[in-house]
Design brief:
12 strands; TIM Barrel; 8-stranded parallel sheet; alpha/beta
Length: 289
């Protein structure tokens, strides 16, 4: 039997309502005001959590990568951009307080050990490991030192690489997310049935992290048994930023949460029965009883 994982006051896994996460990521564009608006939108839509990304710029990126020219709101180089998008301690204090005010869980994917330590100061209920970090054994082991549930995205990874990551992490309090790491991802490359593959292969809760345009495929992921659905959230898909076009606007997030939970209600238990509401119709329309 697949174990359930507790995140905050919620159980995530088979038989539980789908845990819907609005990934803010870097869509705040380094602006705490935009960040607050995204948190409010996610809470209003009925999301269970919001997620951020945390990096130590000098560790994650090489000097050559940082030196590349790149026009952006913070300057003219990639370094200007990467540093401009990172929130500091006081920013995350404000995020923590605002999420409590909006009664919504927050956590982060940390791309290096120092970032794991940084987020650890805020006593989050879980950690997320980004697809790009799945092959970093040292980082995976470092995460486990904190004794928190872990959500592992599996984009751009082979089954053999996922096998190894699961072996390194262990299976306790682990959720796997199927993912295609293209922004935006093409529908024909989403391979949603892989959600069931992950669940069967590892006997773990399996969910979906989507980067596609539109909502239908994410709703379909819930039909296929995704225990968690994560989509990027934006105030406006036309905003500046590399992830905005593959994100969902607030009104769309409200529809996504609504439709996912309507489908959960509609799935039933598979036992064929005649409902009380059908009996008057049966008496009216059937000639032969």
């Amino acid at each position: 039997m697949v174990e359930k994982v507790k995140i905050g006051n919620r159980l995530v896994g088979d038989g539980e309502p789908c845990f819907v996460v609005a990934e803010i990521g870097i869509n705040h564009n380094g602006d705490l005001g935009i960040c607050r608006k995204l948190i409010s939108a996610a809470a209003l839509a009925g999301c269970d959590a919001v997620k951020f990304q945390k990096r130590t710029v000098d560790v994650v990126y090489t000097p050559e990568e940082l030196a590349k020219p790149r026009e952006n709101p913070f300057g003219t180089t990639n370094e200007d951009l990467k540093r401009g998008l990172e929130f500091g301690y006081e920013d995350y204090q404000a995020i923590d307080e605002y999420c409590q005010l909006n009664n919504i869980v927050w956590y982060a994917s940390c791309w290096d050990e120092a970032s794991v330590d940084f987020i650890g100061q805020f006593d989050r209920p879980c950690y997320k490991i980004a697809s790009a970090c799945l092959t970093d054994d040292d980082l995976l082991r470092y995460y486990r030192r904190f004794g928190r549930p872990i959500i592992l995205s599996t984009g751009m990874s082979t089954l053999e690489q996922i096998d190894h990551a699961v072996e390194v992490l262990g299976t306790e309090d682990l959720i796997l997310l199927h993912c295609t790491s293209t922004y935006p991802a093409k529908p024909e490359e989403l391979n949603l049935k892989a959600i069931q593959t992950l669940k069967a292969r590892y006997d773990l809760p399996a969910g979906y992290s989507g980067h596609e345009v539109g909502l239908a495929t994410s709703v379909a992921a819930s039909v296929l048994g995704a225990c968690m659905i994560e989509r990027h959230i934006t105030l406006d898909r036309a905003m500046w930023g590399s992830d905005q076009a593959a994100s969902v606007e607030p009104q769309g997030f409200s529809r996504l949460v609504r439709d996912v939970h309507v489908i959960e209600s509609a799935m039933g238990d598979g036992v064929k029965r005649v409902y009380e509401s059908e009996i008057p119709i049966m008496k009216k329309l059937r000639r032969v009883k």
